[in-house]
Amino acid sequence: MKDYVAFWKQGKRLLVGGIVNILLGILFLKVASQCRIPGVITAMGIISLIKGIALVIRGPEKAKAMLDYWANKSPKAMRLFAILAIAIGLLMLRST
């Protein structure tokens, strides 16, 4: 996790990540109607758009502080979030 956080904190990677999130959000919203469970893909598109816009607007300092906050969580909390991310990924796979 610490290596992942260090990667995103370098240079303008957070800005690029924000732009990628905005593009993915738009893509998810465009293809949601063609999916088995469009509500899931629509929700992920909206979340991705909000995340991308927040990264771009709030700036790198706020985003870096947020990354540090999550990187300093206990290993147990990180495992729980990893399980949640896997579950959301599986739900998205099932929805497509």
Question: Layout of SSEs?
Answer:
Layout: H1 2-9, H2 13-31, H3 38-58, H4 60-71, H5 75-95
Helix pairs in contact: 1-4, 2-3
Mean pLDDT: 89
User: Based on DSSP secondary structure assignment, what is the total number of beta strands?
Assistant: 0
Total count of domains? 1
Multimeric status of the protein: single chain
Terminal Cα separation, in Å?
Answer: 29 Å
Structural class designation? mainly alpha
Rg over CA atoms, rounded to whole Å, is 15 Å
Overall spatial form: flat
Strand coverage percent: under 5%
Order of helices and strands: HHHHH
Secondary structure: helix percent:
over 70%
Uncertain regions: pLDDT < 50 for 5+ in a row?
none
**Sheet having the most strands:** none
Textual characterization of the structure:
- The protein is mostly helical and 96 residues long.
- It has one domain (2-95).
- The protein has helices at 2-9, 13-31, 38-58, 60-71, 75-95.
- Helix 1 (2-9) runs antiparallel to helix 4 and helix 2 (13-31) runs antiparallel to helix 3.
- The chain starts with a helix and ends with a helix.
Q: What is the gist of this entry?
A:
By secondary structure, the protein is mainly α. It has helices at residues 2-9, 13-31, 38-58, 60-71, 75-95. The chain has one domain.
Question: Which features does this protein show?
Answer:
single chain; about 100 residues; mainly alpha
